């Protein structure tokens, strides 16, 4: 038995040497594989990107070095999602194609008549490159090919990052305001002073009432963290408004509307109506002075001060 040990040891060492050689060869081969850009168009010159999905399409246009949605120029876009399109996808590199046969295109959903999505990149000279995006072989993997090329590649990307729905691209918090120091509403008027929140005329308290500063701050937080759910698809008529000013004395007017159990908000500097959940609408649109008041302390101290007209 003992005489076989050296032989087995030598055989084991030989296996390690072979394995090391194969690993080095594979690594060298991987390094030797030529990486090439997925896009042949000059990515620095891209000025328009169109996403096509079935009968829906969405177009991004670059103006003054800023990307915006065509037809929705006032919308603030989500930077991470925009970057995935304009930087990540546009600058992908590929190596070996999965296949080079035209017969495979139907199988991978990569024909012009059978495709998951199309992305068209255009530069400032009108040159275009069309990418066909097909099936997903696994999580965050897509089959893709240039419409003019038979080669099919597998890339690290997800189709959900290329939605043709405008609601998936804009910043839902774009109506929020960083700071608020004045509120004007038909039912209540408030201003923030060095002493805290105080009432403005014509709002006034009963003798047994005081301002509830906690409720006021909670309401302010609703506006500074305001998040909408989507764009409205209908023309609306405002039922009431709320005017606020921030610490820089900038004025913003919110308008509110409801229709068939749907609730909406608009800000005067952005020409779109947005949808809101019902509970959020009730918190910021349906105001009354009573929701910002409480009974005085038992000692009768009046914490509410009404500012005089200046």
The low-pLDDT segments are 21-32, 303-310
Order of helices and strands: HEEEEHEHEEEEEEEEEEHEEEEEHE
Strand pairing plus helix content: what structural class? alpha+beta
Task: Indicate the mean pLDDT.
Answer: 87
What is the 3D form?
Answer: elongated
Number of helices: 5
Structural description of this entry:
- The protein has 310 residues and is an alpha+beta fold.
- It has helices at 5-32, 79-89, 104-107, 213-224, 278-284, and strands at 36-37, 46-53, 56-63, 66-69, 93-94, 110-111, 114-115, 117-123, 128-133, 142-146, 153-155, 182-184, 189-193, 196-199, 209-211, 230-231, 240-245, 251-259, 262-267, 274-276, 293-295.
- It has an 8-stranded antiparallel β-sheet. A 7-stranded antiparallel β-sheet has the order 4-3-2-8-9-10-11, with no helix packed on it. It has a two-stranded antiparallel ribbon with strand order 1-5.
- Strand 8 and strand 9 form a beta hairpin.
- Mean pLDDT is 87; it is low at 21-32 and 303-310.
Secondary structure elements and pairings:
Blueprint: H1 5-32, E1 36-37, E2 46-53, E3 56-63, E4 66-69, H2 79-89, E5 93-94, H3 104-107, E6 110-111, E7 114-115, E8 117-123, E9 128-133, E10 142-146, E11 153-155, E12 182-184, E13 189-193, E14 196-199, E15 209-211, H4 213-224, E16 230-231, E17 240-245, E18 251-259, E19 262-267, E20 274-276, H5 278-284, E21 293-295
Question: What distinguishing features does this structure have?
Answer:
alpha+beta, 8-stranded antiparallel β-sheet, 310 residues, 20% helix
What's the gist of this structure?
The chain has about 300 residues and is of the alpha+beta class.
